[in-house]
Amino acid sequence: GTDVTEKLVNPNGDKELLGWKVQYNRTDVTSGFDWLTSGHTENENPNQYGYWGWVKPNFEIWNSSQIVVDENNISQTVRNLPNGTYVFSAFCVAVRTGSDYANPDDWKECYGGYMFANDDSVSVATNPTGTIVDGQTWLHARRFHVATTVTDGTLKVGVGAKTETNLYWIGFDGVKLYDFGNVTTDEALLGMAKIELAEDVAVADTLKAYPMTADGAKGLADALPFAEGAQTIEDIAAAEDTIRIACAFARNGIAAVSAIAEQLVVAKEVVEGDWSDMVAQQVVNLKKKIAQVEADLAANALTIEEVEAYKTDFLETIDQVRIDA
C-alpha cells in the first residue's frame, strides 16, 4: 500500500476544521453539539493513557450532559484519484450515554457510530475510560478501518452517527489514507493492518532503547512476540492492542526512572568536585553508588514501586558529599 494521506486537506485538525464538511440532522445545533478540535494526547498524563494514536488537536463532537448527538457526520471528498482500493483509517472514540466505566465490554452497548468511505462503512464503538488503572487493560481510542474501491476517481471519507444512536461523544485522530491499487477490500484491510502493526512494533523497539522500570521492560518483552504469529486481521488487532498497552506502561516506566538518570548526572558532577578529607569516605560511597545506579538503569532492574525510595536513597548519598560545601 501507498500512503496518500497528503491527498486529504488538514487530515488531523492542525487548521481546525479546514477542508472538512460538517452535516447535522439537529435543528438546535448549539455549543456541545458542534464538531470541533480538542486537545487530547496519548500518554500526556494519567488521564490520557487510553487515547491511542491521539496527538492534539483532535476532531470531536460531544455533550457534557451526555445528551445523544443525533444524526451527524464530518467528511471530506477527494477527487482525481487513480481508481483502485483505498483504506481510510483513524483512532476513534465513540462513547454512549450512561457508560459503565467498570465494564470492559461497554463498547458492545454502543450503537449508531460509523466510519465511512464512499458507500462502505464500519461501526465505531469504544469504551469510556481513558485510563489504565486498577488492572484495567481495555482501550479507549481504537484504530478503525474502512476500505472501498474507487471507480470514478472520487473518494468521500468521514466519521459520524446515525439518527438512532446512543452516543454522546465521537472523536478521531491519527487519520491515514492508503492506496492499495487493484486488490479486493479484504486484501487492502489486511495489508493496512500489517502496516500499522509494524509501526507499533517499531515504536516498542524504540522504547526498548531507553532506561525504564522492570515492569515496563517485561511488558514490552512479553507483548512483542504477539506480533510474530499474527496473520489474520483479528490476530493483528489483538497484537496491536497488547503492544499499545505495553508501550503505555513502558513510557510510564521511562518517565519514572528519568529522574534517577538526572540525579546520576548531578552525582557525577559532585564526585568530581574538590572535597575535603572529612568527606573522603562519602565520596567513595558515592562512586560506588554511581556504579550501582548505572548498572541498575542499564538492566532495567527497578520496579515502579521501588523508584521513589531509590531516588531518596541516591539523593541522600549525594548530599552526604555536598554537605562539605
Overview in brief:
The chain has 325 residues and is an alpha+beta fold. It has helices at 185-207, 214-223, 225-228, 233-271, 280-298, 307-322; strands at residues 2-3, 21-24, 36-38, 58-62, 72-78, 84-96, 113-117, 120-123, 142-150, 155-161, 167-181.
Quick tags:
325 residues, alpha+beta, six-stranded antiparallel beta sheet, five-stranded antiparallel beta sheet, 6 helices, 11 strands, elongated
Task: Describe the structure in your own words.
The protein is α+β, with helices and mostly antiparallel strands and 325 residues long. It has 6 helices and 11 strands. The protein has helices at residues 185-207, 214-223, 225-228, 233-271, 280-298, 307-322; strands at 2-3, 21-24, 36-38, 58-62, 72-78, 84-96, 113-117, 120-123, 142-150, 155-161, 167-181. The strands form 2 sheets. Strands 1, 3, 4, 6, 9 and 11 form a 6-stranded antiparallel sheet that branches. Helix 1 runs parallel beside helix 4 and helix 2 packs antiparallel against helix 4 (233-271). The protein is elongated, with a radius of gyration of 25 Å. The mean pLDDT is 88.
Write the layout of secondary structure elements.
Blueprint: E1 2-3, E2 21-24, E3 36-38, E4 58-62, E5 72-78, E6 84-96, E7 113-117, E8 120-123, E9 142-150, E10 155-161, E11 167-181, H1 185-207, H2 214-223, H3 225-228, H4 233-271, H5 280-298, H6 307-322
Antiparallel strand pairs: 1-11, 2-5, 3-4, 4-11, 5-10, 6-9, 6-11, 7-8, 7-10
Helix pairs in contact: 1-4, 2-4, 4-5, 4-6, 5-6
